[in-house]
Structure formats: C-alpha cells, structure tokens
Amino acid sequence: MSPRAAGRVRYAVVGTGARAEMFVRALVLDHADTTELVAFADVNQARMDAHNRWLGELGHRPVPTYPAGDFAAMLDKEHVDVVLVTSVDVTHDEYVVAALRAGREVVTEKPMTVDVARCRRILDTVTETGGRVTVAFNYRYNPLHEQVRRLLAEGAVGEIGSVHFEWLLDVRHGADYFRRWHRDKATSGGLMVHKASHHFDLVNWWLAATPVEVYAAGRLFFYGQDGRRHGYARDYDRAHGSPAAADDPFALRLDAHPRLRELYLDAEAEDGYQRDRNVFAPGVSIEDDMAVLARYSTGATMTYHLTAYAPWEGYRVMVNGSRGRLELDVAENDFVDRGTAGAVKGAALHGAEAPAEGGGATLTLRPFWAPPRQIPVEGRSRHGHGGADARMTGVLLGGQPDPLGRAATADDGALALLTGLAANRSFETGQPVRVADLLTPR
C-alpha cells in the first residue's frame, strides 16, 4: 500500500537551503490535512534551526533535525514515507538512492543529478527496488506551458518539424548563479544541467519525444575572471564586509535579505559556504553563453540558446509545423534597474509572491493561408514561478488530479539531464554527441 493510500503522509526534507522553503510551506499550510512534516536533514545545523524558527512563525511545532550523515537512521526513527530532496545538486543521488533502498518514495528537485554515473545509479536503483522517484519540474505546471502542450497535442501546427527556444537570464537573475555553488560545474553540472534541464524537459514534454543527438557550443564570456575585461569588475572576493562591493550592481548584500542572512551569512561558521561571491572572482567553471542543436526521436530538431547576462529577462519559443507556426513570447521583466541589480530575483525565497515587474506574455498562432491569431493567455500569475509552484505541490504533495501527466518520472529526469550532459560533452569535444552513447534510459 502506498503511503498516500494509508492516510496522512510523513515527509522529511533533506537540504534546507532557500529552495526548501516552497515545499515546507506547502506541507504545513496548503496540505496539512493530508501531509505531515516530520524531520529536516542537512550538513548545517544553523540552516535547519532557521527553518524551525520559521515553522514557529507559521504556528507549526519545530521538527527533529538530523546531520546529513544520519539520514538513513532518520528515515526509520521518524517513520518517513516520502523524502523531499532539495540539497546541492551533486548530492541528490546519495539521498535518492538511500531512500529508495529503504523503501521510501522520493520527490527530488531538478536536476535529478549532475552527471552520467550518478544518473545511472539512480535509474538502476529504481529498477532494483521498484521504487518511485518524481522530479520537480515546475515549468510543466505553469498554466502557459500547459496551454502550449494542449495546443500542440491538438494539432494546432500539425506535425512538428522544428523548435527554436531562446532563454534570457538578466544581469540580476543570471548573475546569481555566479555568486553561489552553481558557479562550480562539478557541483551543479553547469547551466546546461541546472537551468536548461527545465527547458529541455519542456521540449521533451511538448513534443512527446526523446533527444537523439546533440551538438553544442558554449563559453564563459561575461562573468568570471576573464570577464573583468568588460570593465564591470570590482576588486573583492565576497560582498559582505567589503567596501569595494558597496557600489557594485553585481554584489549580493545578504544583510538586506533577512531570510538569506539567516540561511547563509549566519550559518557560515559551520561549513564556510559563502553565498555572495564576486561574479568576476576566480573559480567560475560554468558557461554563461550556450548554443545547442538537438535532434529528436520524431525527426524534429531544436535550436536553443541560453544567455545568462541579458539586459532583460524572458524567453521566446517558436514551433514550426506542417500546418503553421506557434510563437510564444514572455517578458518577465523589461529591464534591470541598477539599484536593484544586486538583489535576488523576486522574493528572497521561493514560494512567495514576487513583486510586480514589467513585461507580459503573448501567444500567436500563424496558420497557413490565414491571418495570424492572438490566443488569450491562460492563468498567468505573479505567484511562485508564474503560479506553477502551487500547482506542482498540489499534484506532488496533495495528490491532486494530473490529466496532463505533468508529474515527471526518473526517466523524464534522465532525458532532460542527458540533453544537457550531451551539450557539455559537445562543448569539450566540438563534436555531435549521440545521447544513446551516454546512457540509454529504460
């Protein structure tokens, strides 16, 4: 019998950084009638203590905390049914595999993991145990992305021949990946894995197809030590306590964000992790400008570009088919004000409503032999990830109906991951990479 069928489901969260907040709030506020948060596990006690303080603000009792090394013991002692994995990306497989072998279900943040060996380990363990892993691809739950899925499935453009997908991260949001642990490809897989896996999963889902071959080119152009040539760099290693960072629009001021100060600045003494590194400091091993050409099992192709240093934030998707073309344009903000450039995007933590920004969304169908038609955009929201976070937790934690099949499996997680890993390999070799040569999903 599944935990959900047995009654109130007991959840533990491993990894208590900023991303955990969305899941914690959903468990104790939105789905408290069917779920119970019973434990935290982390390498840093101060971060777990911060989350327990915030639970008190929500009227919830503190939950037991466990060092990450005691994860397996926690599962038994707290009678955990489902593990929520929100730790650093490179550690996902450790907790996913341990939970599966202990007979627990898993919901893991994207990306599922960061390399082929860890991906294979997860898939093999799913096969061995018959366990269940769900990957939290919240972009699937954005009402606008659901609308695109329905239009394509209904044949709005006929048979799909190609997709062009451009994603722009502005110099506020994009810069943030170069301040924190994501700047190290060994821990994040780079933006082709950590960020673009969202987008590759969307294309897989929209096309109902799997990637076959990937060719890509990417480089570190704007950030990092070599990016100092552009004239924006200030001479400091981390922003906190540095006079040189005072007027730097790329500096994150942790003191200005109480939640981030508690999670990171106040917790540094335990593990030394610095959340506010200089984006132009040495040690950046990820790319910030990436181009991808992918071929899919249906014969369709995708051209994709990710820019992490744009003056505005948003994305454009064009789908070309045998009956016309579908165009999606989304501006999440029109420009970045210098006075707010050094802030994190939206609210300090996920799950809260973001402040209003400029921009909007348009969806245009351009059929053959007829004028273009503007399609009204459905359900656009300022809440977390365009309203997707609440919809996702409703399905993954609340057991709500999922007629569009949005809940991503471990195989889905692998397919999104493998596109990014193939791109990374192509960066290194300059050659096309067959996905099957990396790993053949079940």
Automatic annotation (TrEMBL):
GO molecular function annotations of the record: hydrolase activity
The keyword Metal-binding is assigned to this record: no
InterPro entries reported in the protein's UniProt record: Gfo/Idh/MocA-like_OxRdtase_C (IPR004104), Gfo/Idh/MocA-like_OxRdtase_N (IPR000683), Gfo/Idh/MocA_oxidrdct_glycsds (IPR050463), NAD(P)-bd_dom_sf (IPR036291)
Pfam families membership: GFO_IDH_MocA (PF01408), GFO_IDH_MocA_C (PF02894)
Domain Gfo/Idh/MocA-like oxidoreductase C-terminal: 149-434
Source domain of life: Bacteria
Domain named Gfo/Idh/MocA-like oxidoreductase N-terminal: residues: 9-137
Sorted UniProt keywords: Hydrolase, Oxidoreductase
PANTHER family the UniProt entry points to: BCDNA.GH03377
Similarity comment: family membership: Belongs to the Gfo/Idh/MocA family.
Protein name as catalogued: Glycosyl hydrolase family 109 protein
The species this protein was found in: Micromonospora noduli
